[in-house]
Amino acid sequence: MKKIERLLAIVMALKQNGKMTASDIASLLEVNVRTIYRDIDALSQMEVPLVSLPGKEGGYEILDDYFIPSISFTGDEILALSIARDLILNTEIPGFDPFIHSAFLKITNIIPGKDIPVIRKITGRILFDMKYIDPEMEGKDYFPLIRESFEKDLCLHVGYYSSRLNEVKERLVKPHILTFSDGVWYLRGKSEDKPFLWWFRLDRIKYLRLSDAHFYLPEDFDKREYLYSQNTRGEYSVRLSMSISLYETVKDDVLFKNGHSERSGDEILVAFETDRKEHVLEFLFRNCDSARLIEPAALVSELKEKLEKMGKSYK
Predict the structure, then answer these.
(1) Is the pLDDT of residue 314 over 50?
(2) CA 183, 134, 188: angle at the middle one, nearest 5?
(3) Is 238 helix (H, G, I), strand (E, B) or coil?
(4) What pTM was estimated for this model as a whole?
(5) How far apart are CA 182 and CA 286, in angstroms?
(6) How far, in Å, CA of 184 to CA of 146, rounded?
(7) Which of 7, 226, 280, 294 supports an S-S bond with 239, CB 3.0-4.6 Å?
(8) Range of 17's domain?
């Protein structure tokens, strides 16, 4: 990144994020802190209204009324946005496709004509394959309600289908986060009958209504910490064994990240809790030569049944 591009990026980052430390900015722009200090000094000499806040809780801010004039994108920025467009569309954000298309049309209109063939040539060689569920899945119309619940701090009445119980049960849910994981959209939150965070697959929500009850997140809420919370519990208590080499490869996967592991001979025994049965089964299908499911018994039976059906279909 050229210096003038970096200076502009610092200004925009401060406008968007408010107070940031030099370390924060350096991490964002992937440069060392000394470079940021030099850039801050250069911006001050250009009379950009930066405020330096001393102390442990200090950092840099920019005056709220500072106006950033219209800017143009560099070739690499346009290419990055073009790649990001395909990624965003592949996650299939229900209800937002028209806005995504219109936003990227505005970006496309500023691309010089001579650059369009090159960008199409490059993006035509990059493929995202993330969706596991049909885009017309049930739950596609739930986004406006979830968005409103986040905006107004309202709980949700969720009619959720349990594959284990084969029934739909209504729960009053305190929604924490909405996440796209393993090719599926999940609403994660707490319900009255569950003292821990729960994963609700959108395609298994049979109905959704806003509640009059309010729910407020803690002031120190951090979505990443919630996503990988050590207190996570799930519908399935899983134990499996795998080879040491496989464990070293997958140990940081979100499925195992907060589980317990121990060595047993030439294998690693892993125990964890999850709501995402499909993720467990998919992992075992992919690694059937190096991993073995021990419990729960119901999931072992389901895995055997699926493998038997697959075996018959391939004969």
Answers:
(1) no
(2) 45
(3) strand
(4) 0.59
(5) 14
(6) 16
(7) 294
(8) 3-62
Q: What is the dihedral of CA 170, 172, 161, 194, to 10 degrees?
A: -110
203: left (phi over 0), alpha (psi -120 to 50) or beta: alpha
State the amino acid at position 153 in one-letter form.
Answer: D
Contacting residues for 157 by C-beta, under 8 A, at least 6 apart: 170, 171, 172, 173, 207, 208, 209, 210, 211
* 219 shares a domain with 153: yes
* One domain, residues 171 and 249: no
Non-local CB neighbours of 255 within 8 Å, separated by 6+ positions: 272, 274, 276, 279, 280, 283
* Domains identified in the chain, total number: 4
277 assigned to some structural domain: yes
The values of phi and psi at residue 191, to 5°, are -120, 165
Two structure tokens written together for 86? 């395909």
Peptide bond into 218 cis (omega under 30): no
